[in-house]
Structures are given as C-alpha cells and as structure tokens.
Write a structure and sequence with these properties.
It contains 13 helices and 11 strands. The chain has a single domain (about 30-345), classed as Bacterial extracellular solute-binding protein, family 7 (D-Maltodextrin-Binding Protein, domain 2). It has helices spanning about 1-30, 45-60, 85-90, 125-140, 180-190, 200-205, 220-225, 250-255, 260-265, 270-290, 300-310, 315-325, 330-345; strands spanning about 30-40, 65-75, 95-100, 150-155, 160, 175-180, 195, 215, 230-235, 245-250, 295-300. The strands form 2 sheets. Strands 7-6-8-5-9-11 form a 6-stranded mixed β-sheet, with helices on both faces. Strands 2-1-3-10-4 form a 5-stranded mixed β-sheet.
Length: about 350
C-alpha cells in the first residue's frame, strides 16, 4: 500500500514538472534579449528613471515574456547634456532616449504650441500628458520625422523657484531667471530677464549668481538639489507646460521584430497615462519633502494672477504669426491646442 502511494506521489510530481515547470523554463529560456542603449535627460535618481523603467517593463509584459529588454541607461552628461539627446538618438549615437522639447528651441514649432505661455494653461501632469499625445496624434508633425516617437508626456505646471520671495509682478521685473523655450518668451513679456540653460546647469549658475531664479516643476528641488540654492517657489501654471519625448533611432526601430514593434505601439496610451500619474503624484511628495526643509510655497492671488496673464495675451497672436511664417496653418494649430487642453482640464479637474 505504501509503495502504491509513493508511486502515485512520484507520478504526480513528474506530471507537475511536465505540465508547469518545463513550460515555464522553456518560456524563460526562449526569451529573446534585446539591448537598448538609452540616454536620459536626468540623473539616475530622477523621476525620469521611474517613468522609463516602468514603460519598458510594460512593453515586455505586452510580449508575454517573448522578449527581454536589456536597457542600458546613460544618465544626463554621460555622452551629452539634455539638449543633445534628440540629436544623439537621430544620429544613432544611442538607440533611444528621452528629453525635453524646449531644450532645442526652434526645432519643434508645431509641438511647442502647447507650451506657449497663456495659450494652453493645464491643470496637472495628467491633463498635460493627455493633451500632448492627443495633439501629436492630430497633427503628426514632420519635425519628428528623423526619429521614431515612442510616446510623449507632460510634467506638472510651472513654478518659479527663487532666492527671494515672489508675491507680485514687480518682484520678477529685471530678475535673471533660468528658462528654456517658450517659458523664456513668457518671462520676457512679464519683464524678467530669461537665461537659457538645461537643468543640469542650474545649480552652478545659481551658485555663481548668474541667475537668481529658475522656472520648472517642483521635482527639480529634490532631483537637481535646487532646494539647496532656492528658498521660495511661486506657482505660475499659466507660464508654460513642459513636454517630454521618448524616441528611438529609426535603424534601431527597423531592426526590432514586428511583434515587438507592435508591443511598443500597443502600450502607448497606458504609458502616456502612467507618466502623467507618476509625475503628478511625485509633485505632492516633493512638496511635502521640501516643506520639511523650510522651503516656502507661494500662490498668487486671483487679482495678481490676472495681472500676469494680461501681459501674456499677445503671445497667442504672435505665435500664430510665427507658425504661418514657417508654412503652418497657425490659427488652426493654436485653436486645436487650446481645445484639446480645455478638454483635458475638464477630464482631470
């Protein structure tokens, strides 16, 4: 009787191995490894790393284990700064990368419509991310033709981080403020002195006294250690909305198996949504962290905010004219950007 039970037990163990263990082993063994050299616009400690790793994990899961993505991350400064990522991807110096569109002003005139001060104020990173992707799908700008755009997203609305408090318009007049792209235009209209520089240069510029403030989301206070050099942050959501791109070199993309390409495309909508959620959630986390350090957060009164927004109104018509001068239907593009932004704000109130 005991022998029969042992034989039965052995049979069940063997059956389990054949039915479950071996297929799992085979699935793992048959996973095809794909190496991707990916350049970042932030250090490895930045929130970008969380967004990027989550995205590639999402793609892997979409392949049901058929492909294993071995992503080799190059943090900002490894091969080039944030402004060099797009060119580096296009030329194949790296296989893929992520950075901020406004780091290369003038290169993305259509897409940066959404970042123009006062044109498309957005309430959150979720609203911004939806707007950026919907706008991209609507126009598919040729300015991205030299790379494969994997997806785009947006960070939370802007803050001016400064050494001295900014409670009213007069306090930024003639103030040297680090800015990029569209935010420079807005700050100039408000009477400030914008200074172009990527985030990896802000700390040194502030230390040397070259700038007295910087416009960016709250995340920079922690990731770029700017809470060490700035004591105040003033909320200016109408000033600009920063956009990120995640792109792949075309030769790299064309080397990927067709079903892996499909997996990348299939997860786009989820990736856009996830990126917005991660950034907006992190905004609260950083605010709580900085508050404990004694950092001060300032919100303009409605009356004061109206004064600032009034000065930004001419930017809309000026940007329509700028787009038209480059051969684009300026009025249509700006109107559509505003419409998409309003829809997104309604969805993410």
């Amino acid at each position: 009787m005991i022998k029969i039970k042992l034989l039965l037990l052995n049979f069940l163990i063997i059956l389990f191995i054949f039915l479950f263990a071996i297929p799992l082993f085979n699935a793992f063994a048959e996973s095809q490894k794909i190496t991707i050299r990916f350049h970042m616009a932030q250090p490895l400690t930045g929130l970008e790393a969380t967004v990027d790793t989550g995205y590639f994990k999402m793609v892997e899961e979409a392949t049901k284990g058929k492909y294993l993505l071995e992503v080799k991350y190059f943090p900002v400064g490894s091969l080039f700064g944030g402004a060099g990522v797009y060119e580096g991807v296009a030329k194949g110096v790296v296989d893929a990368g992520a950075s901020i569109l406004s780091y290369t002003p003038g290169r993305f005139p259509v897409m940066l419509t959404l970042s123009q001060p006062g044109i498309c104020p957005l309430v959150s990173a979720q609203a911004g991310s939806r707007s950026v992707w919907e706008f991209y799908k609507k126009f598919r700008p040729k300015e991205f033709d030299d790379v494969k755009i994997l997806y785009l997203y947006s960070v939370p609305p802007a803050w001016i981080h400064s050494k001295t408090p900014i409670n009213k318009l007069e306090e930024i007049r003639n103030l040297d403020i680090r800015a990029t792209g569209a935010s420079s235009k807005g700050l100039k209209a408000l009477g400030a002195n914008p200074t172009a520089a990527p985030q990896d240069e802000v700390y040194i510029l502030a230390q040397k006294g070259i700038i007295k403030a910087s416009i960016a989301p709250l995340e920079v206070l922690k990731v770029w250690k700017q809470a060490e050099i700035f004591t105040y942050s003033t909320f200016v959501p109408f000033a600009y909305h920063e956009q990120w791109f995640i792109a792949m070199n075309w030769e790299m993309w064309n080397r990927l198996p067709k079903d892996l390409q499909q997996a990348f495309d299939d997860v786009v909508e989820r990736a856009v949504k996830q990126a917005g959620q991660i950034w907006q959630s992190h905004e609260t986390t950083v605010m709580n962290w900085a508050h404990k350090l004694g950092h001060k957060f300032i919100y303009l009164s409605n009356e004061e905010m109206g004064r600032w927004q009034k000065l930004l109104e001419p930017i809309r018509s000026a940007y329509v004219t700028e787009l038209k001068s480059k051969g684009f239907p300026g009025e249509l593009i700006v109107d559509e950007a505003s419409k998409i932004a309003q829809e997104s704000n309604t969805l993410f109130k």
